[in-house]
Write a structure and sequence with these properties.
The protein contains ten helices and no strands. With about 220 residues, the chain is mainly alpha-helical. It has one domain.
């Protein structure tokens, strides 16, 4: 169980690090009317998506023999990791080949500005959409392969969820701890994330993609 917790925590942190767009979205939402409520709704949508994936993992697939590497379910889970790792590397290759374009300005996207006149519940849907599903599925696959009980699988899901929101929850912490300085701090954070988001994504996705391929391939050949 201890190894599983470390693995899902690492994958959750990987989600957090590879979601600079979500950090910018949270900062932009905080600048709108009812900003805190909108940002919380975004995070709730994010967590709902994770909850659904882990609930399906526990309720539908739990009980199959994923523990032995030679079983069909376990090999399927390992292949899922290999495929997800390859997809991440393909995304990196496509991003690398695409010329980097410096934004003309660092203002928030127009679609975020339109949310100011919408019901704050819409941010729940935005959170659902912006979750990194590839890494979430990888965490679910690791949980299945650990062959733990339902309670332990649920705990693994909670650990993954908590780790995954560390970066997107940070702006809310800033608002709560230092509301008088939040505007300047969040503006600087947004500008830094926008300036370095491409490099962050490229490096993180390469490391995660290679790790997933190596882990899945090892489990496929190690009987």
């Amino acid at each position: 169980m201890g190894t599983l917790i470390l693995e899902v925590a690492a994958l959750g942190l990987a989600v957090a690090v590879t979601s600079p767009g979500s950090v910018v979205a949270i900062i932009a939402l905080l600048s709108l009317s009812s900003g805190v409520r909108r940002a919380v709704a975004f995070i709730v949508g994010w967590l709902i998506a994770i909850g659904v994936i882990f609930a399906l993992t526990i309720l539908v697939l739990h009980g199959q023999d994923f523990h032995s590497r030679s079983t069909s379910p376990s090999r399927t889970a390992s292949w899922v990791e290999v495929v997800l790792g390859c997809l991440l590397l393909l995304v990196v290759a496509r991003m690398y080949r695409r010329p980097q374009q410096k934004p003309k300005n660092q203002s928030q996207p127009k679609w975020l500005a339109r949310l100011d006149s919408s019901n704050w519940l819409l941010e729940v849907v935005v959170g659902l959409v912006m979750l990194s599903y590839a890494l979430t599925l990888a965490a679910a696959a690791e949980t299945l392969k650990a062959n733990v009980g339902s309670v332990d699988a649920a705990v693994a899901g909670l650990v993954f969820a908590a780790a995954s929101i560390t970066t997107i929850a940070a702006p809310l912490v800033v608002v709560a701890v230092a509301p008088e300085r939040a505007g300047a701090v969040l503006t600087n954070l947004r500008d830094w994330v926008l300036a370095h988001s491409r490099s962050i994504l490229l490096i993180a996705l390469v490391v995660i993609g290679v790790a997933l391929i190596a882990k899945g391939a090892y489990d496929l050949v190690a009987y």
